[in-house]
Specification:
single chain; about 110 residues; mainly beta; Jelly Rolls; 6-stranded antiparallel sheet; 4-stranded antiparallel sheet; 10 strands
């Protein structure tokens, strides 16, 4: 049976280390994953850090809940994002991600 799920802002979160992080610097929780594994939604958090942002496996939509991030695209375009901002990163996008302060976001990914 399909049920509606509500995650309240005050609900406790069972964070788990992000797979593949060495050493682990971030945590996430997957709230929903489709039966075929192509669509998923969850929460993500990380301490300030910098590194490549490469969307080689999926499209991602992120809604920033906390923190400030600077995203610099390969052509030099700089996006300053923070709480309340929505970021759409399509499959194939590449950029440099710099978290200026701890970040928490809601993410949704879709694998074609």
């Amino acid at each position: 049976m399909n049920r509606i799920t509500v995650r309240r802002a005050t609900d406790p979160v069972d964070w788990v280390p992000i797979e593949g992080d060495v050493p682990p610097v971030g945590e996430e929780v997957v709230d929903f994953k489709s039966g075929d594994g192509r669509f998923a939604v969850g929460l993500w958090r990380r301490d300030p850090e910098e590194g490549p942002m490469v969307l080689s496996e999926y499209h991602e939509v992120m809604y920033i809940l906390e923190g400030r991030v600077e995203i610099t695209e390969d052509d030099g375009t700089v996006h300053q994002v923070g709480p309340g901002d929505l970021v759409v990163a399509p499959l194939g996008a590449t950029a440099r991600w710099r978290a200026i302060e701890p970040v928490r976001k809601v993410w949704a990914i879709y694998r074609e």
